[in-house]
Write a structure and sequence with these properties.
The chain has about 200 residues and is of the alpha+beta class. Helices cover about 30% and strands about 30% of the residues. The protein is globular and about 40 Å long.
Amino acid sequence: MNFRFSETIFLENEAVILQPLVAADAGHLLDIATEDPALLQFSPRQVYTSELLTAYIEQALTLRNNQARYSFSIYSKLAQCYAGSTSFLNISNEDDRLEIGATWIGNRFHGTGLNRHCKYLLLQYAFDTVQAHRVEFKTDERNLRSRKAIEKIGGIFEGLLREHTVMYDGHRRNTCCYSILKDEWVKLKASFLPDTPEKTLL
């Protein structure tokens, strides 16, 4: 695998634009991040105030500089506004694998198909551009919405990591692990997106 943190990764289709997260996105994402304090209730870090969002983005930029995570802003072309953020993380070129995660999208976009378009672009880049063999997904055992979404795109449940991650409130979450392999992606991608995505997103 040949993932490069120095590269400007710009991913786009008819529904969404993913571009590298930058400091200025604190302004772009503020309305989405602060509209619901429970938006990231199952995530280790919160974004529901301006200060928390700024700290979240600053950490994401530091992690990219340290070659630990590559974060994106999500822009909905159909709604013509910013919708959230997502990332590549736990990247191992030696093992031909990476993780897609740290994804949050505003409540108004849930169930619209936007997240599926994001996942398609990220999976396409991972498997078809940088030649990953394996893409991983991890989520809180309690996050049923996230678990169903991962399973719906073809993620295979692999097991549970007990008391794996310390949350913002001190709770130690159990983490569900999923993956998609390259040969599975070859079969999934042809029918991954709906025939008329614009209808699912409006």
